[in-house]
Amino acid sequence: MAPVVRTSSPAPRSCAATATCTFSSSSTISTRARAAVFAVIKSSCVPMESKRMQFSVLGPLQVRPSRDTRVEPRATKPGALLAVLLLNANAWVSVDQLIGAIWHEQAVPASAVRNLRSYVWQLRRSLGERLEGGPCGYRLRVCPGERDSDQVERLAESARSAMAAGEYETAAERLSGALSLWRGEPFEGLVFEAATAAATRLNELRREVNHLLADACLELGRTSEATRLLRELTEREPWCESSWARLVLALHQAGRTDEALAAFERIRKLLLDELGVGPGPELAAAQRKVLHGRKTMSTTKLSLVVGGRPAPAHAEIDTLLASARHEVLIMSDGPGSGPIDALRRIARTGLHPGVRYRVLCPDSARLSSALRTLSLAGADVRTDAEVPMQALVIDRGSALLPADRESTGYQAGAAVFRLPGVVTATVGLFERIWQGAVPLLPSEPAEAGDGVLTRRERDLLALLCSGSTDESAAARLGISVRTVRRMVADIMNRLGARSRFQAGVKAADRGWLMDMAG
User: Fold this and answer.
1) How far apart are CA 220 and CA 29, in angstroms?
2) Which of 54, 192, 349, 413 is surrounded by the most beta carbons within 10 Å?
3) What's the rounded Cα separation, in Å, for the pair 342 and 427?
4) Are residues 164 and 283 in the same domain?
5) Among the three residues 197, 213, 229, which one is the final residue of a domain in this structure?
6) Element (H, E) at 279
7) Total number of domains in the chain
8) Considering the chain, what percentage of its residues have pLDDT values greater than 70?
9) Which range is least confidently modeled, 30-44, 63-77, 355-369, 380-394?
10) 381 pLDDT above the threshold of 80
11) Who's near 72: CB < 8 A, 6+ residues apart?
């Protein structure tokens, strides 16, 4: 006969306590045997926290008691019971409250309490001791991070912090991970009041995560991904003006101004025809920005800084650098090279407070004093095997690019572009190289005799010398790829090496590789 859970029964005792009561009342079992059996039972009583479960509410309700087991309540009423318990996780829920949710659209039958106990028994087959009964009703014990909705909120909060710190790639990864947890509508198929309210709140969170991801993609220059994401969002929620405003601005940033204005006109007509209202302040502001940008571009699509006139050239580029308020991106061949020569200009004027400077240079310039001075001053400096072009981007609104004599009619100089498409493409190129470049740590190279490797550095060198990639070395050592690159950068700094190849030669000269071979 199947066990029946009674609301008046006390909370279940632990396995060890039950075993103590059972064996203390038996006189036919020896003390040694009793102790042995008790030890076996006690060892099987794993604390709740070590038996991780996964509770999924972002779609049809789902429970994973283990990695390979998935349970979905097939009937609506057991599903409603599970939903109420999850919405009130770790709190006692009264029998009346549970009955009200389960029979919310119909008269409560005389057998409601008996039926409730039957549903509890069905769930307990999957949930075990997690589902408790007591004089107050029932409660479901849930550990932190076991509900997918909690995971989404944690990832969203972490992504907000990353974006505030300018770490847009990290933010995009976390936001994509959050969106991947959705399997459909939250609490799908359940329409009682508490479930509907929770679903509304979670859908608002989903919209916010989508908006944040689109913003991060735009910051990274991935305009096509941002526009695709926002188009999908406007199709799913056609009345959300905030999504439409972001789509208008994303299309404008991608250089697709006509499409941006067409998108605005589409939502304006939809609001007028269906609701009888005009665009709200956010949407109207997006349209004004696009129109202002188009007017500006029609008169000043680019301005030339002519290399044949040094004084005006220096003055205009210096003025552009001084106008930065948030971020300056620099791609350079090294100090003293090309018409832009951003490194020497910044060295002369200094870093402006509150502005983030990110500098990309080739490995050949790694040991230059200008780079080291910038790094010590607070700039983020990285080097890569090759930097394909010179560029200077100010606040992601202006891009300064080299302009040769054929394109300008003057001696080689530089051109300031304010076209969103040009700026976005330049930022995208910078971000792609930046992710794989090696950081220049703000520390002086070690002296020749200061050649002590940590155990992890020795292991890393051994893996790299055997032909491992950064990714495979990171997996073998249990660290991130970024940590691997930072460790390599530190070793290069200590060796005074301009490239990984030169670092290998110098490491061999110091006997580091011979030590590992031995």
Assistant:
1) 72
2) 413
3) 16
4) no
5) 213
6) none
7) 4
8) 78
9) 30-44
10) yes
11) 60, 61, 62, 63
